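Write out the bound-state structure for D-glutamic acid.
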Amino acid sequence: MDHRAIGVFDSGLGGLTVVKELHKILPNENIVYLGDTGRVPYGSRSRETIIKYAMEDIAFLKSRDVKMIVAACGTVSSTLPREISDHLGVPYADVVRPSAQEACRLTKQGRVGVVGTSASIRSNSYGRTISSLRPEVQVFGNACPLLVHVVENGLVQPDNQIARLSVEMYLKPLIEEKIDTLILGCTHYPILYDIFDDLLNHEVALIDPGKCTARYVKDVLTAQGMLSDRKELGSTDYNVTDQVSGFEQTASLFLGEPVNGSLNRVELV
Ligand code: DGL
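---
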């Protein structure tokens, strides 16, 4: 049993799609969230820069004495080397492995698409993980650099034409490959779930990294005897590296509920 908080981080607000699912399946856990809103996006940056930023995010969460660290960011998950993530002193979860496992479980034709940031697609992290689990499955990736901006600017309503046209453009080559399963390989994308689903005629299995990752976190904490036995609802402490104004409105879209918890602007060192 461990009453310390779960630490969750992302380059911005996308990681809140993981927090949303953690609230559902681990409602009694405390969470410390860090969104590096001052430096979002990470996905168009070099590997070295992404690793540097991720290390600073992790150092912040460790300074809060969290019991587990969750990289709720496809870009960091695809880039941070195992030599670092295996030695954090607390359990670590990323979004790649849980999403890849779910894709392997769901695909019928063995044709899996992955959408993500440029860094995630360049790394082929999803393709490598899927090959290690089911070598016969073919993986088709497409980088979608516009989508993080679409989402961070709140253009997320299902009838928003900018969001729809952007998603349509990025789906085209994947539809031509006849994918039957699609990993939303960036934590910003589940908020566009209905648009993806609609443009794929509801015929493709969509994988939301928030849902699979939250289940994975629960499994790890359960296996290690680290769940809290708190009876009351847990609290969430939100931290961002840029202005807090506007956070609550956009964050509530990601969370699917009003922001309920403390909110602070923090400096990373
Ligand atoms: N949520 C991040 C991811 O999953 C956002 C990407 C970015 O910062 O470019 O990749």
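---
The radius of gyration is 17 Å.
Strands lie at 6-10, 31-35, 68-71, 92-94, 111-116, 138-143, 181-184, 205-207, 236-240, 261-265.
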